[in-house]
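Task 17 of the worksheet. Students: predict the tertiary structure of the chain below and write it out as structure tokens. Keep your answer in the requested format; marks are given for formatting as well as content.
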Amino acid sequence: MKLKVPMEQLFREHPCNHMQLVAGDYVPGLAEACNKLGIGYK
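Model answer:
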């Protein structure tokens, strides 16, 4: 998998020990859900 950000930035902004990944572009739907729930995102 190729990421668009350096690993250092990824780990700094998401300090967790796991990630969930899905195939496809779900960004618009996730952004809408975050807005409705009052959850921040980048």
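Marker's comment: DSSP finds two helices and no strands in the chain. The CA atoms of residues 22 and 40 lie 20 Å apart.
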